[in-house]
Amino acid sequence: MEKNTYAVIGLGRFGGSICKELGKEGMEVLAVDVSEEKVNEYKEIASHAVIADSTDENALKDLGFRNINHVIVAIGDNIQASMLTTLILKELGIKQITVKAQSDYHEKILYKIGADEVVHPERDMGKRIAHSIISSNILDYLELSDEHSVVEVKAGDKMHAKTLIELDIRAKFGCNVVAIKRGRDINVSPMAHDEIDREDILIVIGSDKDIHRFEKELVIED
Ligand code: ADP
């Protein structure tokens, strides 16, 4: 199998952090930015770091983008540049194009142009933080689709010393407890009669509406 090669365009906070992680994992990464200062910052981190404007098709061709499998477009505020870059990459035949979007509208257009994956790091992080602000018992929140999510919650006093049968989460709220973490142990097929401890961490999956009702009733302390 040929080795995966990556390019990151735009070395702001998001693109920069992707570049660093890929580098740490020992991946081949080409880092691109219009700013010389940014590029210098990544000389030691990426396999190659070059100054280029990604809206210039010839510049991308000269850099050998055709041979790259996966390109991450992490241009911040300049929506026009991010769209034009995506379009050029698509035309160059890049197999996997991931683009950071600014807004839902931007996301829609990116998919239309042919982006394979659109990410919304600020929006997603905002949602996760909002949930953890609502209750210190909500530990993490991950969106699966527009309507479904997974939450990680601390059992707390409301669920302490009760079994899943007693709590009747599936029937009452329509969501499923898929795993229970206790210290370092994780039980991926919790039984109806297992007793929950207040320190246990429950992984719950369901529609946003159902998760919201579950959180309101059993997670958020009065
Ligand atoms: P973040 O919100 O992730 O920190 P920024 O907006 O700070 O994103 O960073 C985006 C980066 O993208 C900047 O370093 C900027 O120089 C770079 N950039 C913007 N337009 C282009 C372009 N046409 N070609 C290459 N890099 C670009």
What tags apply to this protein structure?
single chain, 222 residues, alpha/beta, Rossmann fold, Alpha-Beta Plaits, 2 domains, 6-stranded parallel sheet, 5-stranded antiparallel sheet, 10 helices, binds adenosine-5'-diphosphate
Describe the structure.
The protein has 222 residues and is an alpha/beta fold. The chain has two domains: 5-132, Rossmann fold (3-Layer(aba) Sandwich), CATH 3.40.50; 137-219, Regulator of K+ conductance, C-terminal domain (Alpha-Beta Plaits). The chain is 39% helix and 26% strand. The chain contains ten helices and eleven strands. The chain has helices at 13-24, 36-41, 57-62, 79-91, 104-113, 121-134, 156-159, 164-167, 169-173, 208-219, and strands at residues 5-9, 28-33, 48-51, 70-73, 96-100, 117-119, 138-143, 148-154, 176-182, 185-187, 201-207. It has a six-stranded parallel β-sheet with strand order 3-2-1-4-5-6, sandwiched between helices. Helix 4 runs parallel beside helix 5 (104-113). It is elongated and about 65 Å long. The relative contact order is 0.10.
